[in-house]
Design brief:
Rossmann fold; 5-stranded parallel beta sheet; alpha/beta; elongated; Beta-Lactamase; 3 domains; Arc Repressor Mutant, subunit A; about 50% helix
Length: about 300
């Protein structure tokens, strides 16, 4: 038996036929797998949340939530999108095979089942999924927050922390669901269009999106980076070599506050505000309060438009 199966990987088996379910559970347990069982799609999804498996063996035709829709819902959740789903069914029609693959299944086994063949398929798919997921987690840990989309801006996969960054931008949503939020689709279409025009990076309020490479002609890979927004005061410090306190005074002057107001806000005396202004005038190269206000506002406005 392979190392994967000796380590007691977990298989979730879903079938509304209790006799067939029992047969599969017994066979997979004899192969040293830990087996979870469910008789409905709804029960499978609930069980998945509590005990994430390494593989799902799923009957396509069930009452209530069928296997195809169950698979789609599994793949819509970033936590489980990497888990391979093997369809196990009596349906032999090509259209059903295609439905299973389009729903996100990695394999399709037609009943009656040859157990040795099923075990071999499970072993291969679990091994491949572990390698792929491990690579994405490693990229994530190294700060490589990656997102792959197709040419129509539909998400294909992303690293776990990239999903968190996208959720912060667009609100909680399932990145791999069939229809992502309109705002996400619009942004990625704009990013793709700008890339084709030669732009290497696009920035939003919360993140930067940089094009990395094209994979196989149909997959576009992007790196996401969280933007650390610099405050007005920090910007003014860097722009004019001000002290932190001087930058605070300038920012309040730009907001139309008087020396008395600024003194009260910063818990200092009006005389201290005046002393700060004397040094600020020198650093900004101006000789009046109105000129200092104008220079500061122009700098802040040019920063906002960059």
């Amino acid at each position: 038996m392979s190392a994967d199966l000796r380590q007691r990987d977990t298989a979730l088996v879903v079938d509304d036929n209790r006799d067939e379910l029992g047969f599969l559970v017994d066979a997979l347990e004899r192969a040293d797998l830990t087996v979870l069982a469910a008789t409905t799609g709804e029960a499978a999804l609930s069980l998945l949340e509590r005990v994430p498996p390494n593989v799902v063996v799923l009957d396509a035709v069930m009452t209530g939530l069928d296997g195809f829709e169950t698979c789609r819902r599994i793949k819509q959740n970033p936590r489980f999108a990497h888990v391979p789903v093997i369809f196990l069914t009596g349906l032999k029609d090509t259209s059903h095979v295609l439905m299973g693959l389009e729903a996100g299944g990695v394999d399709y086994v037609v009943k009656p089942v040859i157990i040795e063949e099923l075990i071999a398929r499970i072993r291969i798919h679990v091994s491949n999924a572990k390698a792929a997921f491990g690579a994405r987690v490693a990229l994530d840990a190294a700060g490589r927050h990656l997102l792959a989309v197709d040419r129509n801006a539909r998400p294909l996969w992303c690293t776990p922390q990239a999903a968190d960054l996208l959720a912060a931008q667009f609100g909680a949503f399932e990145i791999l669901r069939a229809e992502p939020p309109d705002a996400f689709s619009a942004l990625m279409r704009a990013v793709i269009e700008k890339r084709e025009q030669g732009a290497a990076q696009v920035e939003t309020e919360r993140m930067s999106i940089s094009f990395l490479c094209e994979i196989g002609g149909e997959e576009l890979l992007f790196r996401l980076s969280e933007r650390h927004v610099v405050s007005d005061e920090a910007f003014l410090v860097g722009k004019f070599a001000l002290t932190s306190r001087e930058a605070e005074v300038v920012s309040w002057i730009a907001r139309g506050k008087s020396n008395v107001d600024i003194a009260e806000i910063l818990c200092i005396s009006p005389r201290t505000v005046h002393k700060h202004l004397e040094r600020i005038f020198i650093k900004l190269g101006v000789d009046s309060r109105s000129s200092a206000t104008s220079v500061a506002l122009q700098a802040l406005q040019s920063r906002s438009s960059d």
